[in-house]
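Hi W.,

Here's what went into the run:
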Amino acid sequence: MRIHKTVGSERNLILRARLDNGLRKLLTHSSPSLEKLYDAMTYGVFEPGKCLRPLLAYSACEAMGGQFDAADGVACAVELMHAYSLIHDDLPALDDALVRRGKPALHVAYGESAALIAGDALQALAFESLAQPSAVSAGIRLQMLAVMARAAGPAGLAGGQFLDMALAGTRPTLEQVAEMQRLKTGALIEASVVMGAMAGGATVETNRFVALRKYAEQIGRAFQVRDDILDVVGDRVALGKAVHADQHADKSTAVSSLGLEGARHYARQLLLGALTALDAFGPEADALRQLAHVVVERDL
Amino acid sequence: MRIHKTVGSERNLILRARLDNGLRKLLTHSSPSLEKLYDAMTYGVFEPGKCLRPLLAYSACEAMGGQFDAADGVACAVELMHAYSLIHDDLPALDDALVRRGKPALHVAYGESAALIAGDALQALAFESLAQPSAVSAGIRLQMLAVMARAAGPAGLAGGQFLDMALAGTRPTLEQVAEMQRLKTGALIEASVVMGAMAGGATVETNRFVALRKYAEQIGRAFQVRDDILDVVGDRVALGKAVHADQHADKSTAVSSLGLEGARHYARQLLLGALTALDAFGPEADALRQLAHVVVERDL
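Here's what came out:
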């Protein structure tokens, strides 16, 4: 596997700067009375996260030969959507998690009501990011919005959240776990790649587009499997959230279904599948290749 | 004031049937495991509400000379967004309301976690409704999506929700109440009219478009003022929710700022302003005129 020369920490710094810039514009408040709401939203968004989804969007755009600025709206949208999902996931009504990314969860820092509303506002802002004027044509942006809406809704992220809750305390089958993970984590990761590819000029259902979607499916599954592994073997400080949280709540994970070694093997298979999907691409997809490794090998 | 012959209960029945049909399509689940989530969403959407926002969307489309089918996506979107906002508003973290539209609130019927997620899913579905293929051009639908995103986000509905919470227990000024109401209730009502007008062919910033937005601002404020009045004098059974709920929670209302008679006078002024804004329209805006009366004179 060749590593393209634009892949690396300098490239990631440039992309994170683009992302931060876009997010700060979207999170600029218009009324002093709303300052605290924007503070809460900003607290939930600007934290040292992996920025996996925005990096996927930029890298998929690049793989299709597009410029980064075409993917700015997508990168912000997927990070905002991800932030909202974590905030609501951490609420007392769901995971009741006290720590997120190494600091108090939003509902702990700002109160439950503010966290609920900040999450709601961030979801809307994610759609606003896609609807804003950009170099991408109206027709393509509308298709992206449809992709984002499906990925966030009952047949996507929200549906996965619901299944995760519904499966807690049961002994789920591997199929049930797979469906839950596909919706809860996979849908947004897949949408990040798909929308990034569209921003880069990909035409839906062409060979390259289908290949990128296949890549996205594989790493989406790999991401959740790795999460499940880290929940069992992870270092709580590095992870920045309570290790064993899912285990304690008797939730459905790949580890509880396959065992630790089985889950590790499964993650490696998924990585191989993701890399194979990119076979038709040259060095323009090296960033995507590296991200696939990051997903499977990360420690937090 | 002339009442156009298409205004009336038969017309409303036709429009409600269009709306129901569109909503049922959007609320059709794809996986048996998600049935309960869709049940919860459907419970929160299909209740004998006023359907004010969809009727405003259809009527604004009609006022601009458009056909009803152009506004179907907008009508569904605003009803879904409204339903989500009520569901989250009723959660224990916010109003902790037990009754909504005459029956147990969603969190009472399905549990708090399911209500939280169902609300999240409905917001996403509202955007999906606008992004779906329709007779309206991609450029216009993209503009609608931007309007919807702003109306739902931190400078709209979510912001109003936040201010409502922040002002509780204070003695707010009239300006503070007005800002809260403009965001919490006005933004979505205004968006319903604006998006309906766009679906009907209105060009942004033309005289007719500006007139419709002015109309929408007035009835948006009138709606909340009437709500505040009904919270003090309303019949609990007719209203289908706990009367005096806002009063008990010491929340900011037009009545607490202006007194009961002052609030009534204010509502009449707003009605007059809404009707005046429609002066340049003929009978094609009679449905909007009637809806303005409904808003100010309703008992529930």
